[in-house]
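User: I'm putting together notes for a lab meeting next week and I want to include a structural view of one of the chains we've been expressing. I don't have a solved structure, so I'd like a prediction I can at least talk through. The sequence is below, exactly as it appears in our construct file.
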Amino acid sequence: MSKNAEVAENIRTIVKAHHQWMDECLPLIASENVTSHAVREMMATDLSHRYAEGQPGERYYQGCTYIDEIEKLTKKLGRQLFNAKHVNVQATSGVVANLAAYTALGRSGDTMMSLHVPDGGHISHSRISAAGVMDLKVKNFIFDPREMNIDVDATQKAILVEKPKFLYFGGSVFLFPHPVSELRAAADEVGASIGYDAAHVLGLIAGGQFQKPLKEGADIMASSRHKTFPGPQGGILFTDSDRLKEKIDNAVFPGVVSNHHLHHLAGLAVALAEMLEFGEDYAAQTIANAKALAEALYERGFEVLCEHKGFTESHQVLVDVTHHGKGTRVAKALEENNIIINKNLLSWDRLDKSVDPSGIRIGTQELTRLGMCEGEMEVIAEFIKNVVIDDKSVKQEVIDFRRDFTTLNFSFTKGQKAYEYIEFGD
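Assistant: Thanks for the context. Below is the predicted structure for the 426-residue chain, given as structure tokens.
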């Protein structure tokens, strides 16, 4: 075997090892999910080799006859699932979708208003990322850390002072619906549009268990499609506005995308169909699990945020671990025990403390996909307590616990292993 062939074989071995490890872990990263085998099969097709610039029927490449059919069907499913008049499925990531939304809503030098990163805002809503790439001036919503949400009264006043071109809701920490309808009047008073980054909660919206941004006053909803929505990585945009649909399409192509990853497009179509079938039950169980896990952690002595509001209305749980060694130490200790979460800034952390913030963020969407319910959240909370508070090792216990939860639920391929290393083709 040549050295290059050995490299290729080594990569396959590493991927298999990753799959085996995931099969023995509790994946609680709030921004991840696992796709069904039906979705993965689409991503292993010849579509991964092809190009299709432009809209269906108006391509800049030949050879798109069947690709056009796939894209038309994907868009139809997207409109149906989200009850939206227009959908664009060509963005290649959530950040690219946000950048396209910014382009449709404003132009270089305009002012946008969004969440500050320590308050839960995504980096793409800030000057250090996509907003800065477009040279937008960024002002922040006024945030209430006790309520873990935007302060409506204070933000209304800020909107009237700052007069932003558009507001941009959503974030990386997203425990409760954002006040879109409550701030629509203030936006109208200064002539501002509204965008909504649904990346974290798209699956909850699809399942009818969260707010409905477009119906509450958002002009554009942009999103990734692989967090609570269990699809292939990429981006998606929606609008009910006839004025904005062409702007969105032009902002995506030729604005920020050339080819739009056609194998992921086909996978998205399957994921949309799965969510039309199973989305309501999946979203409801995901939120129920988050509430149960938050309560169980709180009962075990953890400082889970927003106890007075029931902790969360989404898939996320946020915990202040300042008294347990802060976020970095806790995240690493849990990883050593096959419990995978991430450290996270809290509102009172300075932005330059992101390497060792006060909090951890937990998401229940992937474990829900594996068939876990409220009872399993009690077990997981005890594992976390044993590691973080009692300084015990529970790695083997976690591995043993996971043996009963290796297959997918809420999918057309229910019963197949979630992390199995699979190779498609004849």
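A couple of points you could mention at the meeting. The longest strand covers residues 193-197. DSSP finds 15 helices and 17 strands in the chain.

User: Perfect, that's what I needed.
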